[in-house]
Amino acid sequence: MIGWISSLLILLAGVAICVAGINLIHEQPALGGLLLGGALGYYLFSFFFIPPAGVGAWFPLIGFAIGGVIGALIARPLYMVILVLTSSMLGGLVGLVISYVLQLGGSPERWKQLSLTINLNDTLQVWLMIIFALALGFLALPFEEFMTMVSTGFVGAAMFVSSLVVLFSGSVALLRNPVFIFFFWFAVGMGGLAWQNHSQQI
User: Fold this and answer.
1) Which of 79, 5, 10 is nearest to 42 (CA)?
2) CA–CA gap between residue 86 and residue 75 (Å, rounded)
3) How far is CA 185 from CA 25, 158, 169, 182, in A?
4) Nearest CA to 138 among 91, 78, 79?
5) Tens digits of per-residue pLDDT, 26-64?
6) N or C: which end of the chain has fewer CB within 10 A?
7) pLDDT per residue over 145-183, tens digit each?
8) C-beta of residue 35 within 8 angstroms of C-beta of residue 82
9) Residue 123 near residue 150, CB atoms below 8 Å
10) How many whole angstroms separate alpha carbon 121 and alpha carbon 119?
């Protein structure tokens, strides 16, 4: 039950970040910092930290709460920190995808067998995530507005799609297909980017 609530929370936060990321960061920085910091905390606590005994399924939610509070507090005075972290999250995703491409090649059958998870024992995957996280984090400095829309569009899309996979992959076969998941994420991210760009021109 707690896992379902956590996934639903990330799904809703992902939708908000994907379609309104730049407005959240510029016009409602506390809310934007809450959602983005919460998402970062959620995934850090899910993949990189070992939960204490007895915490279990609550651990990612604790990460969301801690990250969200920190993000909300620093979003206004340290706006660029939030932007660099969000761009770095996108860089980590790009590095993750590239590691899959390099290791699996172009075989459709091998791609269908892929497990879309972070493997901290995979040196190539970890280094690619670090390199691209640093690269896109630095790009956020000279290309502030563009990177805000791109990073929030695709990070929000990743949150949305990954939550759908957790919630509905048991009953929806397409959500168990890594190839479909990748293109679905890309399409949602492009849609979020286009919507944010359109909202800025109104």
Assistant:
1) 10
2) 12
3) 22, 6, 15, 5
4) 91
5) 888 899 999 999 998 998 888 777 777 777 778 888 899
6) C
7) 899 999 999 999 999 999 999 889 888 888 888 888 889
8) no
9) no
10) 5
Distance CA 75, CA 34 (A): 8
Collapse the DSSP code of 117 into the 3-class scheme (helix H, G, I; strand E, B; otherwise coil) and give the result. coil
Percent of the chain clearing pLDDT 70 (strictly above): 92
59 Cβ neighbours under 8 A, 6+ residues apart: 45, 46, 49, 51, 52
Q: 128: which 2 tokens?
A: 């690619």
Cα–Cα separations (whole angstroms), residue 13 to 153, 166, 176, 186: 12, 15, 22, 18
The first and second tokens of residue 36, run together, are: 């983005």
Nearest-angstrom CA–CA distance, 188 and 167: 18
Mean local confidence (pLDDT), 82-96: 89
